[in-house]
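$ run holo --ligand "tryptophan" --emit tokens
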Amino acid sequence: MAFKPLVFSGVQPTGNLHLGNYLGAIKRFVEMQATHDCIYCVVDLHAITVWQDPVELKKQIREVTAAFLAAGIDPKAHIVFNQSRVVEHAELAWVFNCVARMGWLNRMTQFKEKAGKDRENASVGLFAYPTLMAADILVYRATHVPVGEDQKQHLELARDIAQKFNNDFSAAIAANGHDPEDGFFPLPEPLTQGPAPRVMSLRDGTKKMSKSDPSDYSRIGLTDDADAIAQKIRKARTDPDALPSELEGLKDRPEADNLVTIYAALADTSRAAVLKEFGGSQFSTFKPALADLAVSALSPVSTRMRELMADTAYIDGVLKDGGERATAIARPVMDQVKDIVGFLR
Ligand code: TRP
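-- output --
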């Protein structure tokens, strides 16, 4: 095995962390710690590809960090930091901007979605977002990346960049003492431990739960207290029928499906097992059970998160320490990249 297994992932500090972020990403990050060395990054450089209020941004960087820690990420055994602290991310991203082709980036669906109709007015950073993401991963020569479905295309691009770098610079890479078979960068792989639950809006079961939905009732926030969690579940949109006892019975019932999915994810079980227990029950029975489960699973996290957010000195200390340890890995990689590309240093 040429490359040591290493996990890297990032979360943007753009506000309103919710249940979808927790079940889809952070809970998995916590699980990965048992089997891998992990680096978890608050990607503030990515956040500013769209406008961020500077005062809010600082708060949100601390909030994501607090969520990582409250959920159970151990910042001593692993590494937690904010991206802008480690200059090597931006440095390698520039090299990758010169490796990646316009045509590759033009195919990125997230850019098309985020830029919308007014492409002329999108930031250059938003277009180059995927090359920075590739640099995040490859500056540590990380091999495994837990990501949701929506980030798979970006991860494929990171592999394409790693491959092209390895090819374009193969002679220099060999001259630097690397096995030409392996190349300099690994081709990072997406990590999915079973299908990640897709958590949908509590107001519309066909839309993803989103930080930008104007209705606060559409999402369970990670800092919501027990009352808020229970109330949002009570008010969640449903249809009038009882729960089915088989999975097929959830077809064309997006709201019912979503609540069952959330229950299963929080209870660490399958949707089929939830229907076995609740098939035939009305929502008047199921919702209170789900509210109890959600409160018992989430309120320790939200309580701890609120405590941590009040202790900014502690949070900032974790990020500083993580940044130093991340730099210690990234700097030698970047020095070799400079050598390989042909810079003098
Ligand atoms: N683009 C990711 C998202 O929006 C965040 C991210 C940035 C990331 N850099 C990364 C994820 C590196 C995994 C690896 O969700």
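-- notes --
The mean pLDDT is 96.
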